[in-house]
Amino acid sequence: MGQPGLNRRQLLAAAGGLAVAGSFGFAALGTGADALASGADTRVRYWNLFSGGDGYNMIAMLDAFRKDNPDIAVKDSTLQWGSPFYTKLAMAAAGSRAPDLGVMHMGRVTGFSPGRLLDAWDVDLLAKYGVRQQDFNPQLWNRGVIDGELYAVPLDIHVQLCFYRRDVLKKAGLLGDDGRMVPVTSADEWFDVLKEAKAATKKGLQTFGFWHSDQNFQWWFFVAFYTQLGGTWFNDAGTEVTFDTDKATQVLEFLRRHITDGYADPNFGGGAGAEQFVNGSPFVWEGNWSVPVFDAAKVDYGATPLPPVFGKQATHAESHAFVLPHQADRGGPANEAAHQLAAYIVKDAQQWALGGHIPAYRPILSTAAYKKMTPQNEYVSAMDHQATEPKVWFAGSTGILAQDIGPIVVSSTTGSAKPDAAARRMKSELTRLLATKNPMDGRTAAQGGAVA
C-alpha cells in the first residue's frame, strides 16, 4: 500500500480544525521509557482514547496481556477523546508515524479513508488468535467492512439506556414481579408511566432527565426513535436523500413533549439529569458508561434499552473498534503482535463490561459471570437491535453529522423551532452533506464506497 496522498491542511480540516495541530507531538508519542527496555522481543505501539473508568479497565486488560505474553512489550498512549484524537491519528497515518494499533469509533471508519489512512486486517491472522466473524453480531461486524475488506474489529457496543430507580417506581406501582420496570410499547404508555412516576417523586426533583440541550445526546435519541419508525437516510448508492420529514416530525414532537408536559425541567442543563437521578429522580436517559457512576453512588436502579415507543425496538448504539493505522511497511512481528493484542482484549472483555459496555465478542455474553452482571444483563438485548448512524463519511461519534444536525434537534426539543420546520431543516442539511466531499480523500459519499 503506497503513501497516502493527503496534505496536512486536508487532514486538519477533516478531523477537527487547525487549533489542535500544535499539540501533535507529545501526547501521541506517550511518556516514559521505551517499551523494549523490558527485554521483550517485539514492541507494539498502541493509541487509544480511553480515560476515567474506561482507562482503568483498559490498563488492567493490557497488564493481563503483558503478563501472559512477556515477549511482547506494549507501549500504550492515551490521547484526548474526540476530534483531537482523530486529527493526530490521521496525521500520523499520513506521515509515516502511525502506531501499530489504534482505537476508533466504528461510525468514523468509513470517513477515515480506508486503504489510505487505515490498513485492512488479516482475517486469517485474527482467526489464528481466536477472533472469527461468526462470533460477532453480523450487523456490528459488517460496519467495519468497506469494499469487501475488514478495517475495524469491534470491541463493544455502547448504547443509550433508560435508567430507572426501583424505590420510586415501586412506590408508583411501576415495577413488575421480577423487580424490573413495567414494559412500555407505545408513546402513550411511556407518558402514562411518567405521569405515575411524577406523582411518586419528591418535590424539587424532575421526573425525567434527557440532556435536552445537548446536541450529541439529542441526536443519539433522535437516531434511535427515527429508526424505530423505520426511517431511512440515503439510498444504497449514496446519491439520494430518503429522509422522511413526517417521521422525523413525529420523533421531534415526542422529544419536545417531555418538556411541554412538565416531566423534564428546561432549567436543568448538562449532567443535571444524572445528578437528580442520584438524588431521587425516577428516570434518566444516559449512556451505558453511567453504570459505574450509579454503582458508586449506591443507587438501587435498573437500566433498559430505550423504550420502543414506536413499536419497534431500536436503541442508539456506537462501537469502540480496533483499527490498523496506515503504515507503508506494515507487516512482520509488530503487525502480528497487533493482531494478537487486539484479539486478546476482544476475547477478554469481561473486564471491559464493568464499564457498562456490551462486549462485542458474543461468547462472553453467554457466560455465567456475564449473566450475573447487573444491570448489564438487563440491557444486553440491545446488541440485537442497534440503531446506528448511516454508513457515510460524515457520520460517527463527534462527527460532522452530529455537529450539524444535533443543534437542529435541540432547537425543536427546547422549543426555539417547531418540529415540522426542524425536520425540513434536517433534510436540507442532509442534502448538503451528501454532496460534500470528504476532506480526507476528496470524494462524496456516492464516490466513497459507503456500502459494505
Description of the structure:
The protein is of the alpha/beta class. It has 18 helices and 15 strands. It has helices spanning 8-15, 24-29, 52-68, 83-94, 123-128, 138-143, 166-172, 187-199, 215-228, 245-260, 272-279, 291-296, 332-347, 362-365, 368-371, 376-379, 400-413, 419-434; strands at 42-48, 72-78, 101-105, 118-119, 145-146, 149-150, 153-154, 156-165, 208-209, 283-287, 301-305, 315-318, 320-325, 358-359, 386-387. Strand 5 and strand 6 (149-150) form a beta hairpin. The protein is globular.
Keywords:
6-stranded mixed beta sheet; alpha/beta; 18 helices; 452 residues; disordered N terminus
What is the topological layout?
Layout (H helix, E strand, L loop, with lengths): L7 H8 L8 H6 L12 E7 L3 H17 L3 E7 L4 H12 L6 E5 L12 E2 L3 H6 L9 H6 L1 E2 L2 E2 L2 E2 L1 E10 H7 L14 H13 L8 E2 L5 H14 L16 H16 L11 H8 L3 E5 L3 H6 L4 E5 L9 E4 L1 E6 L6 H16 L10 E2 L2 H4 L2 H4 L4 H4 L6 E2 L12 H14 L5 H16 L18
Parallel strand pairs: 1-2, 1-3, 9-10, 12-15
Antiparallel strand pairs: 3-13, 4-13, 5-6, 7-13, 8-10, 8-11, 8-12, 8-14
Helix pairs in contact: 1-4, 7-8, 9-10, 9-17, 10-18, 17-18
Largest sheet: 7 strands, mixed
The parts where pLDDT drops under 50 for at least 5 residues are 1-37
Shape: globular
State the distance separating the first and last CA atoms: 21 Å
Please state the CA-atom Rg, rounded to the nearest Å: 22 Å
Mean pLDDT: 90
Counting DSSP E segments of at least 2 residues, the number of strands comes to: 15
Helix content: 25-40%
Structural class: alpha/beta
